[in-house]
Amino acid sequence: MYIILVKRSFFKKIGRLCWFSTGWIGARYIYRELIFPFLFSIGVVTFILLANFLIKSVDRLLGKGLPFGVIFEFLYLNLAWIVAMSVPMAVLVATLMAYGRLAEDNEITAMRSSGISFTTILVPGFIFGLVVSVVMLYFHDGVLPEFNHRARLLTSDIYRKRPDLNIEPGYFIDDLPDYSIYVKEKVGESLRKVTIYNKDARDIQTTIYADSGYIGVEGNTILFTLFSGQIHEIDLKGLSDYRRIDFERHRIAIPVDNLTLERRESERRGDREMTIKMMRAEVERYSREYQQVIAKINNLVRKELGDTLTSFDLKKIEKKVQTLQAENLKNLPPAEAARRNQKLTIFLNRIRSESNLALNYKKQIAKYNVEIQKKYSIPFACIVFVLLGAPLGVITRRGGITVSAVLSIFFFLLYYVFLIGGEELADAAIISPFWAMWTPNLILLIVGIYLIYYTSSEQRVIDFSRFPYLFRRLNKKIKKNP
Predict the structure, then answer these.
(1) Sign for the pseudo-dihedral over CA of 122, 125, 129, 134
(2) Checking CA distances to 47, which of 25, 160, 176, 316 falls within 20 to 30 Å?
């Protein structure tokens, strides 16, 4: 009987919640207040991030002779990760603006004076954040991986289209067939300290050094014009025939077949190009590999040292090997001690090698687990930002874009600093992927819950008009006591 009453009470609360979120006229009013700032914020943030991405990527697009359709596809595919970043921030901006305007116009006060609690007023925002979270969860798992995969392939194809424009000083360029190029310095179109060698030579190895040069393109041929250099040729079979040629001006013509854009397909995917199902399969595969390596280490230790490991600890194994080597030197003849110690050294080197392999498998497992947790934690952040932004908007009593944008940028940067820092630590297998990805949500959720309690109980307001006065007083104190 008690269980039936509890179930009835639970469903009654759910029904009341549904009524508040849809039937209550105030809920529909709050939804309208949220939707426009949300769409506006998505547009602004997406435009800013897209413009920044376009500025960074302009060197990949200009001078490539790419059709407009390819350029549009390049931007369209990269728009997916930009939207994934802009939506949570847009939720925070929209919540701050909506509840801030309601508080600024005393509509929150009117609702509360009519007997509606702040938690009830918060329900429409929570439902809004929940809906956005569900949509973003699907987007992160069903849409974003495929877009990231296609964007990576297209970026690689564009990069390969005109390798003459991709020379970066201080690095070997291997995009050209049969040749590898190293340029120490690039001044405008002029290349300085150029080294070219034919990397696939079987009979004669040719290496060219030049003080300067430049590159031109004619059809499907790249032309290197070099000045003040030397050509070195050596017979790879006999290694006895050697020839050196000095030149003042030398031209090399390299035919390249991929000066027209070739679209490729690839089954290989990175962690950010996989769905949750794909990554879980990879985690299982690497976990099996990791367990096999640990089993191999246990067998080696049992065979060589006669011990059974309860948990793998490389430092303990190293310490025991060093102890055994010291005992051998003390108790055995020099020749026998040297033989056994050499065997122990070989054993220890193999253990270290297997340990490095196990650590790499562990890092791979952690990396995929981080991405799995991220696909859940970032969409959930939309709910967290609602619970943070609603009371913060009421406290500030500012519905304008300026205050909302400043507060949003602050909390969003704080969120991503923790997220990126946690990701780095989890990828290195230092902390758990779960805590790495969910700690930012947990921190902001605690702050949001405190602000909700603070707003519900005291209804205090941050008076921004006093800030200039406080800054003037602080400035006077600093000048008096430098």
Answers:
(1) positive
(2) 160
Distance CA 53, CA 71 (A): 13
Place of tokens 């490095």: 356
Distance CA 413, CA 229 (A): 52
Mean pLDDT of the chain: 79
Cβ burial of 299 (10 Å; 0-12, 13-18, 19+) is exposed
Q: What is the dihedral of CA 110, 112, 114, 116, to 10 degrees?
A: 130
pLDDT at 336: 85
pLDDT tens per residue, range 34-92: 899 899 989 988 998 888 888 877 766 665 567 777 778 888 889 999 999 999 999 99
158: Cα separation from own chain's centroid: 22
- Cα-trace Rg, the chain: 32
Instruction: Please count the other Cβ atoms lying within 10 Å of the Cβ belonging to residue 323.
Output: 10
Residue 285, CA atoms < 13 Å, CB-side half-sphere: 8
Min mean pLDDT across 150-154, 202-206, 375-379, 386-390 is at 202-206
Structure tokens at 28: 């529909």
Strands (E), 256-379: none
Lowest mean per-residue pLDDT among 119-133, 283-297, 401-415, 467-481: 467-481
Instruction: Provide the 3-class DSSP secondary structure of residue 92.
Output: helix
What is the DSSP track for 333-344?
A: -HHHHHHHHHHH
279 vs 277: CA distance, rounded Å: 6
Rounded Cα distance between 265 and 289, Å, is 28
Selection from 216, 241, 222 nearest residue 179 by Cα: 222
Q: Which residue has the tokens 């969409």?
A: 379
List, as one string, the DSSP characters of 351-399.
Answer: HHHHHHHHHHHHHHHHHHHHHHHHHHHHHHHHHHHHHHHHHHHHHHT--
Q: Three-state SS for 171?
A: coil
Residue 193 is inside which H or E element, if any?
strand 190-198
Q: How confident is the model at residue 2 (pLDDT cuts 50, 70, 90)?
A: very low
Angle at 117 between CA 114 and CA 119, to 5 degrees: 150
Higher pLDDT, 431 or 261: 431
Q: Which of 140, 42, 119 is nearest to 391 (CA)?
A: 119
Where are the strands (E) in 236-350, listed by range? 242-255
In which band, very low, low, confident or very high, does the pLDDT at 442 lie, cut at 50, 70 and 90? Answer: very high
Side chain identity at residue 151, one-letter code:
A
